[in-house]
# Entry
Amino acid sequence: MKTPNAFAQFRILLANGIKSELSDLERLISPLLFALTILILFAFAVGEVEPDMRIKLFVAEVFLTTFLALQISFSRVFEPARTDKVFDLLRTYPVSYNAWFLAKYVLVVMLGLSVALPTIFIGAIMNGKALANVSIWGIIPVTVLAVAGLSALGVLLAAITMKAQSRQILYPLLYFPMTAPVLLSAIQVSVTYLEKGIFNSDSKAWFLLLASFDVIYVTLGVLLFSELVDDSQ
# Structure
């Protein structure tokens, strides 16, 4: 039997991952309910504030909700592989490690955006007065880049710590500090854009920094994932 090429393997693995997510509606509904809960908590806890502060709160709501929701995806992205001993089975099947990493990565990005995008629109409705003079569409590319960077790092570190004895401690110690450049860049771009209504030179510089870290983390994932899989076997 002919072995599928790397791209075909990527499509098969991604399709299986999507099918697995869609088979359990609770997996899709829970992150959205979580996002709605965060927005409601912010609304009741903060109350009435100045419009400038309301913009910053909106950005905080979006990225905090996305950041926390992604942790759920990271915790379960390799769970079938760990419980079903998929890493051991890789020895008997010539699967492309790059295809496997990219399939996991794209799946997590999709899950992250499925929470981030509704959060943006629901948050915009709840903060309508402060955002009345600016288009929220401008922060969607920023959010996509932020999710892309956080997802690449999360999938890579989830693979690193999957078989570690104290992965619940090791993972956050590695992940949280390394997410700082992505989160800070995304927040700076978003706040500047929403306050000014345009992408000025400062926001463009932060945007380039965000894109740079995305490239770095995705490249590291592609280069290191095969070594991690081999070591885990």
